[in-house]
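Batch job 17 of 40 flagged for manual review because the log was empty.
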Amino acid sequence: MAGAVRTRAYQDLLKALVLARQDAGLSQAQLAERLGKPASFVGKYELGERRLDVVELVVVLKVIGVSVKDVLGAVEGAAPEKL
């Protein structure tokens, strides 16, 4: 399962999260503050050094103001058939 972080689909998810944050006009520090987390929290998941669980992903997207459906839809096609 650790290899899933290196899949194209997961990398696409990370790119989508970075783009969504930037489109919202938020720095990593600003997003982290809104999440009640240290600034390193955002940096680490954006770099793939830390994985987000599903609930964390939903909260991040909610704070950014982006639909979960839109972000997951953007990476669905890149998801592998197996982990």
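Reviewer: the log was empty due to a logging misconfiguration, but the result itself is present. The longest helix spans residues 8-23. Unflagging and moving on to job 18.
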